Amino acid sequence: MSETDQDSTPMIQVNQVWKQYDDNIVLERLNKTVDEGEFVTLVGASGCGKSTFLNMLLGTEQPSKGEILLDGKPIPNEAGSDRGIVFQQYSVFPHMTVLENVMATCGFQRPGITGYLFGSGRSAAREAAESILEQVGLSQALKKYPHELSGGMRQRLALAQALLGKPRILLLDESFGALDPGIRSDMHDLVLNLWSEHKLTVFMVTHDLKEGFYLGTRLWVFDKLRHDPQAPQRYGAVITYDLPVGHMDQTTYQQIDDHLRPIPAQAG
Amino acid sequence: MKKFINQHPGRAFKLLLGIAPFVLLILLYVMGSDARLEVNPNDKLLPSMSQIADGLERMAFEPSKRSGEYLFWQDTASSLTRLGLGILIAAMLGLLIGLVTGALPMIAASLSPLLTVVSLIPPLAILPILFIVFGLGELSKVVLIALGITPFIARDIQRRTQEIPFEQLVKAQSLGANTSQIMIRVLLPQIMPKLFDAVRLSLGAGWLFLIAAEAVAATDGLGYRIFLVRRYMAMDVILPYVAWITILAFLIDVTLRKLTNKLFPWYVQGGKS
């Protein structure tokens, strides 16, 4: 964003990234830079590769060609504590209570064989966990197991867990896709608050274009520009729109919306 | 009238339906036994209920004329010790091998093929080897049980470990966890209830190996006794022994199930969340 120094390298650089599985090209020719503190929303039709892109940031998948740089260095090829993640499901540990789930983060943060905490480390972790759970509104459920929580509470827990790890980048992979609309908008407010409070850089994948329009600072639309009906796997998706959020007129919205969710052709 | 597939018995009726086959079997037995004893009072094949009670009384509540011990209880204690030791060793070995091969692809690459081959060896076929190597004492029987069910438990635990969602492993790493922390804090606790399940499933095989080993070489034990008195066609001892083994197996199974529910409250309704 404009606040950052012009001469400093951007936090994330995506250079000529391609991703393909065998002959199936998923993404092609991606070139982007993202500065620290941005909130990027990734939208696109299902199967267009937006989650694949997120996984490349996460480190669980690697580009087939090109490179993604974090602070000028190639992004590590495994998940690490500088990049937090909230998945749509399976994001919390089912065998730990809410409090234990978050305290586990503190155990994982220090070197050690078991990841269990004792003594003063444990009570410090407890304090930190309770305060972050307060922030996400889970103070009433400390002793509950994840299966006793609603979907929204579970995602709050996953967020709290990720935030206590003090990541620089937070990745949200359709984290709120399975929630009811009302609860989803609560979660959006929560994420926006946490984003500004913890000074995070956020990448959020969603299939809901509206989400992208009022969340964050930047919207990326993934879509296939070229299409060969004989060989649909021949071309991958590119980022067709890169828009600052809040500066979008209705026509552009409609244009993108039509493109992502084509309505069956009608006359006129 | 509902379709048969949609009909459910009520509480009391369900109990009745459950008990009925047992009552029926006992009734059939008593009728058969009466019919045979009427023809030949010395018939040994189907002893009457009172003869069975006498046999049990002789074994369980009167000291043996030869050794002065209560044979029934001594047999029970010996057999349960062997079974318990064998299962315990198998559970610990199986957990270790299963967890390590399930979590670490590098280790799995070297151990999985071996495990598959070993699990195909019929344990009873190597019983003679065990007797030769470990002697006729307690050790060879325990080793047979352990050897017989370790591969099963190990492979089951391996599969269960691999079934834990990949997302959880990634999540733990994104929180800063290293390999051993993931194994000890994320995988191991989630595998423990599965281990209890695996042990419950392998108990049947455990009993099989126990009784086979006792039948071949032992000086006491439930299996030993059954095969010993077979020589005198002492059905009045064999039948209560078989019933007792069944009851023991049932009790162990129930205990393990209750223990699982108590130790792992999150597992019972266990979502994977």
TrEMBL record, chain A:
CDD domains: ABC_NrtD_SsuB_transporters. Belongs to the ABC transporter superfamily. SUPFAM superfamilies: P-loop containing nucleoside triphosphate hydrolases. Signal peptide: none annotated. Keywords: ATP-binding, Nucleotide-binding, Transport. It comes from Candidatus Thiodiazotropha lotti. GO terms for molecular function: ATP binding; ATP hydrolysis activity. Transmembrane segments: none annotated. The keyword Plastid does not apply. Gene3D superfamilies: P-loop containing nucleotide triphosphate hydrolases. This is ABC transporter ATP-binding protein. Pfam families: ABC_tran. The lineage of its organism: Bacteria, Pseudomonadati, Pseudomonadota, Gammaproteobacteria, Chromatiales. InterPro entries: AAA+_ATPase (IPR003593), ABC_transporter-like_ATP-bd (IPR003439), ABC_transporter-like_CS (IPR017871), ABC_transporter_ATP-bind (IPR050166), P-loop_NTPase (IPR027417). Residues 12-249 form the ABC transporter domain. PANTHER family: ALIPHATIC SULFONATES IMPORT ATP-BINDING PROTEIN SSUB, TAURINE IMPORT ATP-BINDING PROTEIN-RELATED. The keyword Nucleotide-binding applies. It comes from the Bacteria.
